[in-house]
Amino acid sequence: MKVSDQVVQSLRLLIEKQQMQIGDRLPAERKLSEQLGVSRSSLREALQQLISLGMLVSKVGAGTYLQQLPTNWSELQIVQPLSELIDEDPTYRFDVQEARMILEGGTAWYAAQRSNEADRIKIRQCYEKIAHFQALGDADQASLADAHFHLAIAEASHNLVLIQVMRGLFDLLQYNVVLGRRKVYSETHRFDQLHDQHFQVMDAIERQDPEAARRAVCGHIEFVIQQVRSIDEEEARCQRARRLNRT
């Protein structure tokens, strides 16, 4: 288990022991790290994980607050095992992509119907950040912006269950995006295609066209699946050729 995961479990026990309620403010970072007996860097990583999952909320200048009780932190039990499965079996990422098509097809559909101006601004900002960090060559931040783009669409659906599922799977979504980027985003023409696909999703939502939004996001994910499979096959052929040349 990663250190940050251990810190999450310690934090969960502390919250339960102190009988904190939704809306309560967590102790300051320095005090909290002392209470848990962990480094501040490990604590920050754990807090960010919980914030990404929607369990905690950080308010600038005001601190970090409990948004969900630890009894509802079941999402944490989803992300780690699935990530381990991807590590053990790289082809498992295709199952993740197929699940994304089902889930995100729905979130895009409802986002086109229900999104407000603030939602659409947030989606566009995420879209622009992807290109910005890609141009800087910052793959980590580009991947994070990519995952946030898809999460922003889910939030724009205004369906609390869909939002919670997407937040709960955020770390897995980002992990899946990173794996895809290592393959597909390595060539400029492929990035241009993916960037245009993101635009098509965003444009359909802005035009309030649910069917176009659903087709665009499903087409985008299907494109990634096919491209990664094609790249994997080419790499496998090259490996076989190298083995043949050594014999």
UniProtKB/TrEMBL annotation:
Coiled coil feature spans = none
Q: Do the record's keywords include Transcription?
A: yes
Q: Is the keyword Metal-binding in the record?
A: no
Gene3D superfamilies per the UniProt record, alphabetical: GntR ligand-binding domain-like, Winged helix-like DNA-binding domain superfamily/Winged helix DNA-binding domain
Tell me the Pfam families matching this sequence. FCD, GntR
The HTH gntR-type domain, residue ranges: 1-69
GO MF annotations, alphabetized:
DNA binding; DNA-binding transcription factor activity
Q: Which UniProt keywords apply?
A: DNA-binding, Transcription, Transcription regulation
The record's section on InterPro entries has:
GntR_C, TF_FadR/GntR_C, Tscrpt_reg_HTH_GntR, WH-like_DNA-bd_sf, WH_DNA-bd_sf
- Matching SUPFAM superfamilies, A to Z? GntR ligand-binding domain-like (SSF48008), Winged helix' DNA-binding domain (SSF46785)
> Per its record, how is this protein called by name?
GntR family L-lactate dehydrogenase operon transcriptional regulator
UniProt lineage? Bacteria, Pseudomonadati, Pseudomonadota, Gammaproteobacteria, Moraxellales
